[in-house]
Design brief:
By secondary structure, the protein is α+β, with helices and mostly antiparallel strands. Helices cover 29% and strands 28% of the residues. The structure holds magnesium ion.
């Protein structure tokens, strides 16, 4: 059983299957640009909420959500577009929308959306605390540049991949990447009481990023990737990387879990002692005149 601090809370098994719950938000000016289109906000809300269920290997079951919007956004057409996009995104992931609430906010306040999701899994998720020395560290998909490319507006939660990983390959620890590898991997390592070495030249870089320190920094620090990050025994990891579904999702090994705590970056086999990637500033608060 686990609760706050993990991707999802695991509830008492329901009809013998573990039930997972998670909640997430999209705030205008924080997670999306001011004046972002309602459909984009709704898609992002569903995607980032369900990404937490993916990390637990859970199948989306039911969603409820809330909207808090100032009068300027509270117009009928705006709300209709938002709701339609939310329902569409939920339907695509086979989740039923079971409720919600709307509130108005003072003029000038940001739009704040929240979504609570319930998911059912076939078996219990590993959580973040089971990574062992010698495990390989793996990720799905491509990393970096999600904000600049606009990819962050339509995250594709790795539901099928999360379920496949847990049912067939039993990762020792798994979470989703929302804040970037440089922020999220240390969380997994701390929870497991271990450290790791990550090879920057093995990172799956998003299109447009170069294989240099700037590209690597973008890949580990931009965030909003909504991919899966996991630790697995080396032999199992080799098998998982040959699984057709996981191969299509780009599952690759990027590093190894070590006994010595802390996260170390290497490039061409050399340890980069002073390299400290800086998190990408979500500069949505500033109006850009250009
Ligand atoms: Mg998460």
């Amino acid at each position: 059983m686990f609760g706050p601090g993990d991707d999802c809370a695991q509830l008492r098994p329901w009809l013998g299957r573990p039930l997972y719950q998670t909640v997430d938000q999209v705030v205008e000016g924080v997670h999306v640009e001011w004046g972002a289109r309602p459909a984009a906000m709704a898609r992002k809300l569903v995607g980032r909420t369900l990404s937490d269920l993916a990390a637990a290997g859970a199948m989306p079951w039911a969603l409820s959500w809330t909207i808090c919007a100032p009068p300027a956004s509270h117009r009928r057409a705006w709300l209709r577009t938002l709701a339609e996009a939310f329902l569409e995104a939920a339907e695509r992931e086979n989740a039923s929308v079971i409720g919600g609430d709307i509130s108005s906010a003072p003029e000038g306040a940001p739009v704040v959306l929240s979504c609570t999701a319930l998911g059912v899994a076939d078996q219990a998720a590993p959580g973040r605390s089971g990574a062992c020395t010698g495990d390989l560290i793996l990720v799905t998909g491509k990393l970096g540049g999600a904000l600049r490319s606009g990819r962050h507006l339509a995250p594709q939660p790795r539901i099928a991949e999360g379920r496949r990983l847990i049912s067939r390959y039993k990762p020792h620890a798994m979470m989703d990447l929302s804040d970037g590898l440089a922020s999220d991997l240390p969380r997994l390592l701390r929870a497991s009481g271990v450290g790791a070495r990550v090879a920057l030249d093995c990172l799956p870089l998003a299109v447009g990023l170069q294989k240099n320190l700037r590209g690597f920094e973008s890949a580990v620090a931009d965030g909003e990737d909504y991919e899966l990050l996991l630790a697995m025994a080396p032999r199992t990891a080799q098998r998982a990387m040959r699984d057709p579904l996981l191969r299509r999702a780009g599952l690759v090994s990027i590093g190894v879990v070590e006994e010595q705590v802390g996260l170390r970056w290497t490039c061409d086999g050399k340890l980069l002692r002073s390299w400290r990637p800086k998190p990408w500033a979500h500069d949505f608060g500033e109006e850009e005149d250009a």
